[in-house]
Each structure stands twice: as structure tokens, then as C-alpha cells.
Amino acid sequence: MLRFLTAGESHGPALTAIVEGMVSGLPVTDEYINKQLARRQSGYGRGGRMQIERDRVTFLSGVRGGLTTGSPITLQVVNQDWVNWSDIMAPGPQARLNERVVSRPRPGHADLPGAIKYNQRDIRNILERSSARETAARVAVGSLARRLLEELDISIVGYVCRIGTVEATRQENPDLPKLLESLANSQLLCPDPQAEAEMVKEIDQAKAEGDSLGGVFEIHAYGVPPGLGSHVHWDRKLDSRLAGALMSVQAIKGVEIGHGFAAAAAPGSQVHDQIYYAANQGFYRRTNRAGGIEGGISNGMPIVVRAAMKPIPTLYKPLLSVDLHTKEPYQASVERSDVCAVPAACVVGEAVVAWELAAALAEKFGGDSLAEIKERVNRWRQLVRQV
């Protein structure tokens, strides 16, 4: 069973993750993961923190000679900004707890409910962990999963299809090479150049007004074999697991599988994917409105998931709030933030989708080495063509 745990604060020394259950013999390098970390930090509309951090991963265990060993993998991403916070965030009694105290909760953030739940008088103890900075560790973890999926001929690609009021032309079952080509030079991970130009204008306007923007991104997973997940128990349904993983990403407020909410407005004849059969490929479908999942089980078509990200709650034109200590009305605290981070959220989304698919594969096929799980997955693919 694949599982992981992350730890670390936004302005602490480092972010750390421990991954357990990864097969042995998986080729992986720090540079491979660093490329994904760099993608997370890119995108038009990012803030000042991205000018400070240059995220790079260090393996502290579980990898030797460029191959996983089968033992727990420890990954560390150092916070470059720690040097500016080491006295304030120090773990010992020397910490300067009276400096940079946050008492004004930001609407839309975890600040107030977190302070209430954990009985904190300094909201910094909440925002340091609830910050989206935590997703750097999850991208590192998800990159390990992506590396495993690549060895099993499964590809994942995400793209931004909406920012603010601007929506890109939706691509129905896009061809993978063409999609990758269209994203290669995009600064917003958007395959529609005309829509991207309008998105940039909208981001610039929001920045000038001290506001922020959200949007929608879409993720496709190609080559996923049928049979992942289960209809038997609620917590084993693949669509449930993917939706939960995406909803766990900071600022995500909605998830769709396939046609999602649009399916509710259409008759069944225009929603369900008709089934065909060919001797050389077995059962297949010519449409993919279900997003590759039926009854909680992958059906062999590409997995398609879509997530909606709300505007970032930290605004340079802050909203009204109430001071935690004095109970007096104030404008909410301003922490360094982005105007728009939808492309970054898309990269994080790819990572969590990769993790859930890798976990589902590990559960179905088992195996302690890459060779073992490869052999089992290939055998399964041959069998399903003969059903």
C-alpha cells in the first residue's frame, strides 16, 4: 500500500515528506522532481515568494544510485526564506514570539477556524501550515507517483481552461501530443492562445485593483487500464478518491468527473457512452462523457477530472475582519501572495491525481519491485482485450 505524510511550515526550515510502499527499482532523480517543482512555481500572476524560493528536492533515504530501494523515501525541500524567519519561527524558547504576530484573520482562509480549533492566539501558527506552500511537498511526492505511472505507460497532463470570466475553448478528448505541443510555450498552461491573452489582461486588471482571481483546470490521464477502484465500498471508488484528493488542495472548491455538472442538464441519451467491441482492442467507447470512470471503476478511457479554484483569500486590498484579541473591526492582515495561482494549482492537481492512480494500481496489482508490477499490469492489459 502506498501512503505518505508531509510536514513543515511555510517559513520553517524545510518541507519534508515520507513515502512508504513505493516499489524498488524505480528510476528517479532529483532533477526529475525539480522540473515538476519548477512548474509549480511558474505561471503569470504569481507573487513575490516565487522570487525567493527556487524549490529543489533532496533525497534523505530510500533512493540509491538513481533507483528506489523499497524502503521509505524521505524527501526534503528547503525553504530559502527561512534565513529571514529563523528567530521568529525557532522551535526553542529563544523564538521571538512577540514579533510578526497575526491577530487579524483573513476572510476565506483557515485563519479564524484554525485559531478557534487549536486554541491559538497567534494566527501565524495556523497560516504557516495551511499555506499553499505545503503543496511543494505534495508535488514532490506526486512526482514519484508520476514516475511510476510513466513506467506503466500512463501519462498525465493538465491545463487551465478558465481564469476569472475568461474560458478557453474546451477540447473533447484532446490528442496527447497535440495538447502537449500547445502547452509548451504557454505562460498560463492554457492550450487556447486567444483565451490566454484575455486571461493575462484580466489578471493585470485584478492586480491593479488589489484583487485576486480563481479559475478552473482540467487533468487527463491517458493509458489507465480498466479495473482500478471498486463499486463495492464507498471509500474504494476511484472517482471518490480522485475528487477527495483534489478537494484537499488549498483553495479548491469544486470537482467534476467527465461532463460533471453539465450531465445534469442533458438527457441520458447525450450523457452515457455507448459501448462497442473490436477483436483487436476488446470493448471500447467512442465518446468519453463519463471521464473514464463508471461505477467507481476505471473503464479504459482517459480519466478526465476538472477542479475549480477560488480566488486566493489574501488580498492587497484587504476585506473587513475582526481582531482576534481586541474584537475590534479591522482590515484583514496582508501576507505576501499571488494574484492568480490557477496554473500552479493545476500542477498540484496533476500530482495528487498521479498519486491516487499509482495507489490504486498498487492496490490492484501489488508487487514489491518495478519489474513485478510491470509484468502484472501488462498481463492484465492482455487479459482485458480477450474478455
From TrEMBL:
> Does this entry carry the keyword Nucleus?
no
Question: What cofactor does this one take?
Answer: FMNH2
Q: Where on this chain does NADP(+) bind?
A: 40, 46
Q: Which SUPFAM superfamilies match?
A: Chorismate synthase, AroC
Q: Which domain of life is it from?
A: Bacteria
What GO cellular component is one of the record's annotations? cytosol
Locate the transmembrane regions by residue number: none
Could you tell me one molecular function GO term of this UniProt entry?
Answer: chorismate synthase activity
Q: How is the cofactor bound?
A: Reduced FMN (FMNH(2)).
Identify its protein family.
Belongs to the chorismate synthase family.
Q: How does it assemble?
A: Homotetramer.
Q: Protein name, please?
A: Chorismate synthase
Q: Which source organism does the UniProt entry give?
A: Desulforamulus hydrothermalis Lam5 = DSM 18033
Q: Which gene encodes it?
A: aroC
